[in-house]
């Protein structure tokens, strides 16, 4: 559990220090009071994001850097700074510089609830891919490095496709990048199927929240490969679709275009369920997410709930708040009725 949070030059805050943080912390104030910025600072420390802003955009206007630090109940201090000019992040544990991997391993993970998340099934597939990747980055620090390497390999392969199309390179040169692409994509899938299988086996527990009887609920990961033959499926598909990739200068298969869907009695959730029931399922997905992270890391994640309670009816609100009992949480809201929790007024 974290007990203190310090911000310097972060978004609108020139300097802010929050002390005596508790298990449940309600950040209250009108919409213009920048409650989300506090949650964003916490999420950035754990390699996640609520606002999806770039690091440069998180620096206070006219300043050159930001600094975030939190202290745990054991007294450990973890800090992150970002310098605009050098485009450099610095990770610090107890006033000593460290690597990103060691920093993330020492940190808590976080699970984000926000209005965007509650509508994720209606939005872009990229957001659903990001949801899966963020869970994996929170659970396995090495996944972030793997994903970064994959993007570099993908970019290099696409650049070479363009050069081959323009007769600046030979087709033979693609063999090197194909092998690196296949190997890295295969590793990504091994991680992704861990969360996909966990979601698939756990989501059935959400059936009780439907207003009518249904027979089946499924988490369907939409991809071109099978778990049993990942490497071979990728290789065959690359060879089969080479001409298309060459003409388009793009690799139009594999992890960067996958998606997922939730099926209710074999029909898409968004076509079959009401908004109320869709929210129930998404809340369940987030509950499954934090259970997965806790199992993989052996640490309870921090829960960040951004301006969401006001959008939920009493049933959904009570469902969520009941699950918070055993986890530290930071909840932004315009107001709160429960005066027994820690209140941070802006």
Major pleated sheet: 6 strands, antiparallel
Q: CATH topology of the largest domain, which one?
A: Glutathione S-transferase Yfyf (Class Pi), Chain A, domain 2
CATH superfamily name of the largest domain? RecF/RecN/SMC, N-terminal domain
Mean pLDDT: 87
Q: Strand fraction band? A: 15-25%
What is the count of β-strands? 14
Total count of helical runs of at least 4 residues: 11
Indicate how many domains the architecture comprises. Answer: 2
Distance between the termini: 22 Å
Rg, Å, rounded: 22 Å
Low-confidence stretches: none
Please describe what this structure looks like:
It is a single chain. With 346 residues, the protein is an alpha/beta fold. The protein has 2 domains: 1-108 and 300-346, Rossmann fold; 118-298, Glutathione S-transferase Yfyf (Class Pi), Chain A, domain 2 (Up-down Bundle). Helix content is 42%, strand content 22%. It is built from 11 helices and 14 strands. The protein has helices spanning 35-45, 100-106, 115-118, 125-139, 141-165, 174-202, 230-240, 242-248, 269-272, 275-297, 314-323; strands at 2-10, 13-18, 24-28, 65-72, 77-83, 88-93, 96-98, 110-113, 217-222, 259-264, 267-268, 302-306, 329-333, 342-345. Strands 2-1-4-5-6-7 form a 6-stranded antiparallel beta sheet, with helices on one face. Strands 8-12-13-3-14 form a 5-stranded parallel beta sheet, with helices on both faces. Strands 9-10-11 form a 3-stranded antiparallel beta sheet. A hairpin with a 4-residue loop joins strand 5 (77-83) and strand 6 (88-93). Helix 4 (125-139) packs across helix 6 (174-202), helix 6 crosses helix 7 and helix 6 packs across helix 10 (275-297). It is globular, with a radius of gyration of 22 Å. The two termini are 22 Å apart. The model has no long low-confidence stretch (mean pLDDT 87).
